[in-house]
Amino acid sequence: MRIDIITVLPELLKSPFEASILKRAIEANLVEVHFHNLRDYTTDNYKTVDDYQFGGGAGMVMLIEPIDKCITKLQSERDYDDIIYMTPDGERLKQGTANQLSLKENLIILCGHYKGVDQRVRDKFITKEISIGDYVLSGGELGAAVLCDAVIRLIPGVLGNETSALTDSFQDNLLAPPIYTRPRSYQGMDVPEILFSGNFPEIEKWREEQAYLRTKERRPDLLDD
Ligand code: ADE
User: Fold this and answer.
1) Domain residue spans in the chain?
2) Which atom of ligand 1 is nearest to the CA of 112?
3) Would you tell me how many other CB atoms lie within 10 Å of the CB of residue 32?
4) Which CATH architecture has domain 169-224?
């Protein structure tokens, strides 16, 4: 997979890709991530990427021209499966979207800033608009980092244990069950006996019940989906 991220603040985005699982995925050539600074696609001396809103109103709007130049150049080099715009008015990111995107070859992610981008960018180029939650960030970069993390960890070979993504929270619309490791007893708190029974079908049944109970208590909305 290849991900091209278009941003006015590449430095805000780089560090998540330089550590841990994302770094390993890049080093193992399971994913390529490229950053494109929008200011490199401007033509004026000031490297202008935004301007005042037509019709008045507070807040600047990102110009179509540098974004067009950047996306058009990328599209001349390869076909993209999706051109994603990070925005608080997009579709809320869920595990299902991450699963679908993890199967794609080439993605562009456009990070919004200020009030957002000129509507004509969205009309002309964008195929998917994603929000990471019902709150407003100062830019799309942190949202893009969250999206990339959620997607890249699902690419086959990225996680050490291939099955571990399948047992994550949300992968059956259920939260994950409680988990335990050593010691068996800590300051009077004991690990549930069933986990030492060696009866794996019973352990699996217990985990499913616990996942269901936890979901019912914390996120009953997931059970309606
Ligand atoms: N940009 C600003 N707020 C955002 C959000 N909640 N999700 C994605 N991108 C954003």
Assistant:
1) 2-152, 169-224
2) 1
3) 12
4) Orthogonal Bundle (1.10)
- Each residue of 46-88: pLDDT tens digit? 999 999 999 999 999 999 999 999 999 999 999 999 999 999 9
Please tell me if the CB atom of residue 136 comes closer than 6 angstroms to any atom of ligand 1: yes
Global pTM reads 0.94
Predicted confidence (pLDDT) per residue in 127-139, tens digit: 999 999 999 999 9
CATH number of 2-152: 3.40.1280.10
For a mutational test of ligand 1's pocket, the pick from 9, 131, 138, i.e. the residue with the most ligand atoms closer than 8 A to its C-beta, is 131
What is the total residue count of the chain?
225
- Average of pLDDT values for 20-45? 96
